[in-house]
Specification:
seven-stranded mixed beta sheet, single chain, 2 domains, alpha+beta, 11 strands
Length: 538
């Protein structure tokens, strides 16, 4: 055996797959990457206020050292008043530093996270089902084309980072079980801890996942007590700042400023709203939460079009029987499994997710942690049934390919026409043009959600200027309403004066208040910029 052959045999790609299988895998990964990355600046069309918030605070901390609320390196953003998780903003910072602040630079990190997760999922399947290449390849293909993971990877809602971080940590645990190198174990604990900064659901999920995993590893003698202790220290050290954040906001203690970071106190703590079991009748609330969450999984939608696209749902609606069959198979096989293998990790992940379903008031974002094991069970059911018929795996690949092509066509065409009305399409262009006008006042419509954050984002306003000039309609509430800052006023004046040195960013229904003989209009999507003709001619 020559040196090249020895290197190929040690390569994690070529030591497992034949040449043809490797080409197939690369084609699958390329397809998955392209459908997650191509055109992310334009699809979904427009820009969500949560994206703008995460992006602007990342920009402000990066350039000025404080977020829009004056917090220096906060472990959790105050954002609107009721908070926004900070992990995604941290992730955005290097991209904003390199590419500037834009829709593209804010969405690109999530798209890349989705692409990395696709590769990670392949290696996780390989660790779990090493002897079943059909399971590994077909499973990777299905993960690449499932609508939920594609859609959540294409826009930058910070909660959508949570399941990917847990996936990465779970893969590293599976690597540790295979190779027994402590570095994998400790890095997985760090990732689990870091996931607590991505979404509040982690506060409930992680104890019910990590603790049972640790117990199983100890009982199976896969870790020593020393390794377990060091793992706890890594996890505990990582989550300590966010635990302090939860503590001071639960018990109304003042915020903590440590110089290099801030543990803020929110104006309003929304954790009790999300975890509704703690705000009313425990049994009634928990059962209602579970029923509502189960309904979401069965119907594969929650009424929010940015989470699921009818009629395709989360994993294509026809897959529900496959998912249930895969779940049954995996539960039946628990006792038969090799005690040394990593198969139990997915089951414990699913079990912890089910616990979460009782605790939080559900939508897809809040229970998104269940989606990875849910997809895994869908794959398991598909592979099992496909294996029972001649050429079944190939037939399954063809049928899912057809479903994917229909999904992709709809997503990049008709769906975008719908989303432009949900994500304030055109508002950014109108604000950008208005900012260039030499006007004393820029009136920005208040007929959209949180217009002030879009204005901060697209004008890249210094947060110190914002804080020194801001006036609120409502302040220190869960969602603060800004009346004005600097020269920007949110909402139209009672009387429109064409002689005022002002320009107007308008929502389409407001155009009727601006006569064409007195104002020059430029339109983008649902929004427009009105400039007084008399002033424009000067």
């Amino acid at each position: 055996m020559n040196a090249l052959e020895r290197r190929l045999n040690r390569n994690p790609w070529t030591e497992y797959l034949t040449g043809g299988q490797l080409l197939l895998l690369l084609a699958i990964l390329l397809l998955g990457i392209l459908v997650r990355v191509v055109g992310i600046g334009e699809a979904p069309r427009g820009f969500n206020q949560d994206e703008a918030s995460a992006g602007y605070d990342a920009f402000a901390i990066l350039k000025y050292g404080i977020d829009r609320n004056g917090m220096h390196n906060p472990v959790h953003l105050i954002a609107w008043g009721s908070g926004q998780n900070a992990a995604y903003s941290w992730l955005c910072m290097p991209f904003i530093a390199l590419l500037g602040l834009s829709v593209w630079s804010v969405r690109l990190p999530m798209a890349l996270v989705g692409c990395v997760s696709l590769v990670i999922f392949y290696f996780l399947l390989k660790n779990i089902h090493r002897k079943n290449k059909a399971f590994v390849l077909l499973g990777t293909f299905l993960f690449a084309i499932f609508p939920w993971h594609i859609m959540k990877s294409r826009w930058s809602l910070e909660s959508n980072l949570f399941p990917d971080l847990v996936l990465w940590g779970t893969f590293l645990l599976s690597q540790y079980l295979r190779k027994e190198k402590s570095g994998y174990l400790y890095t997985s604990m760090f990732l689990f801890g870091f996931s607590a900064y991505s979404y509040g659901s982690a506060y409930c999920f992680l104890p019910f996942f990590v603790l049972p995993v640790g117990i199983c590893l100890l009982l199976r003698k896969k870790v020593t007590w020393k390794q377990a202790l060091l793992g706890v220290l890594v996890l505990g050290g990582t989550v300590l700042p966010i635990l302090l954040f939860v503590f001071i906001n639960t018990f109304d203690y003042p915020q903590i400023e440590l110089g290099f970071l801030t543990i803020p106190r929110l104006y309003v703590n929304r954790h009790t709203e999300m975890a509704s079991v703690f705000s009313g009748n425990f049994l009634e609330s928990s059962l209602k939460n579970f029923r509502d969450a189960l309904k979401i999984l069965v119907t594969q939608e929650d009424g929010l079009p940015w989470n699921a696209m009818p009629p395709f749902g989360l994993t294509y609606r026809v897959t529900l029987p496959l998912t249930l069959w895969g779940l049954v198979l995996c539960l039946k096989n628990i006792r038969k499994r090799n005690a040394q293998g990593p198969e139990f990790l997915m089951d414990l992940w699913f079990a912890a997710s089910v616990v979460l379903m009782f605790v939080v008031k559900p939508n897809i974002n809040r229970i998104n942690i269940i989606m990875i094991p849910w997809m895994y069970y869908t794959i398991a059911g598909t592979v099992d049934l496909a294996g029972r018929i001649p050429h079944g795996p190939k037939a399954a690949a063809v049928l899912f390919s057809a479903a994917f092509l229909l999904f992709a066509k709809t997503y990049f065409t008709d769906y975008q026409s719908m989303m432009e009305h949900k994500f304030s399409y055109g508002l950014g262009d109108a604000i950008t043009q208005a900012a260039q006008a030499e006007a004393d006042r820029v009136y920005v419509t208040d007929k959209t959600d949180m217009p002030y954050i879009y204005t901060l984002f697209y004008t890249q306003t210094d947060p110190n200027v914002y804080r020194s000039t801001v006036r609120y309609r409502t302040s220190h509430v869960d969602f603060e309403e800004v009346a004005s800052f600097d020269r920007y006023v949110f909402g139209l004046p009672e009387t429109i004066d064409p002689e005022e040195n002002a320009v107007y960013v308008l929502y389409q229904p407001e155009l009727e208040k601006f006569p064409e003989d007195e104002f020059e209009m430029t339109e983008w999507g649902d929004f427009a910029l009105a400039v007084p003709r008399a002033r424009g001619e000067k």
